[in-house]
Design goal:
about 400 residues; alpha/beta; Aspartate Aminotransferase, domain 2; Aspartate Aminotransferase, domain 1; 2 domains; four-stranded antiparallel β-sheet; binds pyridoxal-5'-phosphate
């Protein structure tokens, strides 16, 4: 693996130089006002990225998976019923975690490549007349298949059924890269991680927690200590942590939100949509298709490319790593070998994206797949040549 090449895994993502420098700092007393001066702007910036009104932003030394655990243990009690849709590796892993915590899972299965089935969720909520379902889990962007789900539609289903369940959303591979609207969608907890849209090293779970979720925390009896929101909220009031925080990562987070807002969140989202479209044009030119079943489900942050019959996506990923020092994502679980994944999130430029598509093509040629060199690159070049505004109008 060459450390000079950009990575095309859907997290961790490429770290901008300015963020690396922000993380690299001398020891600072985390109980001093100097820490609060770094920490408070980071929290305020995350709040704007999530569009959270009221509630709390909670930043834990952990990863996205720890964020899931914090979301459920702070709001639920042993035996509580939880509704969730399963349509990929990440939605599956969150369900597995809930089962291990003794929650009573009501799972709706959908084919991998589909999103959360809003109609089935609506029917399950309507059928739950005595409101036994305490929480609904939704994976906004299923990173295994490159599928985005309709969180606003799920909120409508909850409202239409007059159902009070908490809406807990995994936004680990969407937040900071795709529009996310906690207030507008009535999301009670949103979970992100530092190493995807925030372009940082792994090490932080970043959560938006609504007032309703904070209220649920008092009655929730699942055990938690390190992740207890109550301790966090108390310490935050004094500008600090109940334990030693990773100060460098938090300084990096402050820089990250500063960079996202300097570019403009809408411009960041448009850039991701543009790279996703350029990638899909390359995929089409290769004679392949995304795993996502239809255009409305296409993710702006990751494309899972279905490889032709007789080809193995994992071979391409292994070859790219060993021969060209470049990282792509393998297929996970039910789509292992059947897809390879191109992550196009975080810090990327036109030139970086084209380098990834070019290397993927060389790998296909080396492996004897029938893909003419330059075909996908040319399709992406043609698309990226048009100025961003015009290109977006074209795609819309
Ligand atoms: C990466 C990812 C996770 C897991 O996050 P970690 O930081 O690896 O613990 C969870 N959900 C989704 C959708 C992801 O993409």
């Amino acid at each position: 693996m060459s450390l000079q090449n950009p990575v095309f895994i859907p997290g961790p993502t490429n770290i901008p130089e300015a963020i690396r420098k922000a993380c690299d700092m001398p020891t600072l007393d985390h109980r001093s006002p100097d820490f609060a001066r770094i920490f408070r702007p980071a929290l305020a910036g995350v709040r704007r990225v999530l569009n959270l009104e009221g509630g709390e932003i909670i930043v834990l030394p952990s990863t996205g998976t720890g964020g899931w655990e914090a979301a459920i243990t702070n709001t639920l009690s042993r035996g509580d019923r939880v509704l969730a849709a399963r349509f990929g590796m990440f939605s599956q892993r969150w369900i597995d975690m809930c089962q291990r915590h003794g929650l009573d899972m009501q799972v709706i299965d959908a084919p991998w490549g589909e999103g959360a089935p809003v109609d089935d969720i609506a029917a399950a909520l309507r059928a739950d007349k005595d409101h036994r379902i305490k929480a609904l889990l939704a994976t906004h962007n299923e990173t295994a298949t490159g599928v985005v789900s309709d969180i606003a539609g799920i909120r409508e289903a909850l409202d239409a059924a007059g159902h009070p369940a908490l809406l807990l959303v995994d936004g680990v591979s969407s937040i900071g890269s795709m529009p996310f609207d906690m207030a507008g969608w009535g999301v009670d907890i949103a979970v992100a991680g530092s190493q995807k849209g925030f372009m940082l090293p792994a090490g932080l779970a970043i959560l938006g927690v609504s007032d309703r979720a904070l209220a649920a925390m008092e009655g929730a009896d699942l055990p938690r200590t390190f992740f207890d929101f109550r301790d966090m909220v108390t310490s935050y009031g004094a500008g600090g942590y109940p334990y030693t925080p990773p100060v460098g990562l938090i300084a990096g987070l402050a820089k990250s939100v500063e960079m996202l807002e300097a570019e403009g969140l809408d411009a960041v989202y448009a850039r991701h949509a543009r790279y996703a479209e350029a990638t899909r044009r390359a995929v089409a030119a290769w004679g392949m298709r995304p795993c996502a079943a239809q255009p409305a489900l296409y993710s702006d942050t990751v494309t899972a490319v279905v490889v032709p019959e007789g080809c193995n996506g994992t071979d391409l990923v292994t070859h790219a790593a060993t021969r060209y020092g470049m990282a792509f994502g393998v297929g996970l679980g039910a789509v292992a070998g059947k897809v390879f994944r191109i992550g196009h999130l975080g810090m990327l430029t036109d030139a970086m994206l084209l380098s990834g598509l070019a290397v993927a093509e060389m790998c296909m040629a080396d492996l004897g797949w029938e893909v003419p060199l330059g075909s996908g690159v040319a399709a992406a070049q043609e698309y990226l040549r048009t100025p961003p505004g015009a290109a977006l109008a074209d795609a819309a």
